[in-house]
Amino acid sequence: MACRIRDPARETQPNSPRAAENSTDLESSCSNAGNSCYPENSMRFNFTLQEQAADFYVVLPVIYSVICAVGLTGNTAVIYVILKAPKMKTVTNMFILNLAIADDLFTLVLPINIAEHLLRYWPFGEILCKVILSIDHYNIFSSIYFLTVMSIDRYLVVLATVRSKRMPHRTYRAARIVSLCIWILVTIIVLPFIIFANVYTDDLEIKSCGLNFPKPERFWFKASRIYTLILGFAIPVSTICILYTMMLYKLRNMHLNSNARALDKAKKKVTVMVFIVLAVFLFCWTPFHLATIVALTTDLPQTSMVIGISYFITSLSYANSCLNPFLYAFLDDSFRKSFRKLLECRTS
User: Fold this and answer.
1) pLDDT confidence tier of residue 261, bands split at 50, 70 and 90
2) In what helix (H) or strand (E) does residue 199 lie, and over which residues does it extend?
3) Domain range holding 126?
4) Which of 49, 62, 97, 188 is geometrically suited to a Cys-Cys bond with 45, CB 3.0 to 4.6 A?
5) Does position 303 have pLDDT exceeding 80, yes or no?
6) d(Cα 133, Cα 197) in Å, to the nearest integer?
7) Helix (H) or strand (E) holding 200
């Protein structure tokens, strides 16, 4: 969800929560009303861009609606299975549960973004504006942090298995405490966005929900993008890459005894699942953060192609919130069995 600096000269770009990170043109992503900054998927363009981007206005609500329906159904199913099935109460599944909660919250409020997209203004008031912006940022940061913790956990499990050691402190209760600490950390990180989020009215008397930065707006705008890029991508992804590199190195260079040879089958499956979930996350989110770098270092014109790419990048990051349940169902036998058993109990 990001915001846009406003430039008195012109008004372009769309108004949706995740956008300023995706915009590839810092100068042209501004509107003409003072010193407010607003999210990237706003539906107000100048007249030329309105004609060029008309198809996007029709297609995007459909795409967002599909993501909302699939994501809400899938993540709710994941939450239900983990909470209800006794065999699903594992350390890894505790982190998966919190990851599903973050995605579920985002898909739950996505209809409000769709409504804003269609109405082309913000009719829902300042409180809901702060809620929507904060949930979107919660989704950005919490997803990568829970994946980072899952990667740390996998590294420790693999290391302990290779060395034939037990992990007495790796318990479901400990995972709950770690999860709570992550939510507290993410709340602290998101707090600046909550403070700056509000509803403003531009020169055309159109209400928008976004981030209202103090002067100098351009400095705060760039700072917010760098802040998100470093804390929401660079640091956690670097940590994950280092962990998996060390994990592969130890597996290749340490002699495994008969009990730890090639890891236990179940542990190996969980490790592969976490790796694939992480890979899908990076596939969906890396373009989003690369677009931030482009926006900070270049000045591309707002052509229909640039706008289309921006919308595609935003939609791809949204789509990640509905993909994980399919990965769990495809990769985790215990999840499929628990889900079927719960369905049988409800239908019998």
Assistant:
1) low
2) strand 197-201
3) 19-323
4) 49
5) no
6) 7
7) strand 197-201
Tokens of 153: 């956990």
Mean pLDDT to the nearest integer, 32-44: 38
Q: Assess whether pLDDT exceeds 80 at residue 319.
A: yes
Q: Which residue matches tokens 């700056």?
A: 196
Confidence label for 13 from pLDDT (cuts 50, 70 and 90): very low
In a domain, 328, yes or no: no
Q: Which residues contact 191 (CB under 8 A, 6 or more apart)?
A: none
- Rounded Cα distance, 343 and 162, in Å: 38
Q: Does 14 map to a domain?
A: no
pLDDT-based confidence at 335, cuts 50/70/90? Answer: confident
> Which amino acid is located at 16 in the chain?
S
User: Residue 207: what residue type?
Assistant: K
Helix axes of 265-297 and 304-331: crossing angle, nearest 10 degrees: 170
Number of folded domains that form the chain: 1
Q: What is the mean pLDDT of residues 31-44?
A: 37
Domain membership flag for residue 336: no
Is residue 172, in this structure, part of any structural domain at all?
yes
Q: What is the pLDDT of residue 141?
A: 95
Is residue 92 a contact partner of residue 150, using CB atoms and an 8 Å limit? Answer: yes
C-alpha separations of 77 from 14, 51, 104 in Å? 32, 41, 10
Question: Is the pLDDT higher at 52 or at 199?
Answer: 199
Q: Which CATH number covers residue 140? A: 1.20.1070.10
Dihedral of the CA atoms 21, 207, 319, 232 (nearest 10)? Answer: 30
Mean pLDDT throughout 142-163?
87
Q: Is 99 helix (H, G, I), strand (E, B) or coil?
A: helix
Q: Residue 7 CB: number of other CB atoms within 10 A?
A: 18
Token pair 């100048």 is found at 46
39 and 133 in contact (C-beta within 8 Å)? yes
Q: Whose CA is closest to 148, among 284, 315, 281, 293? A: 281
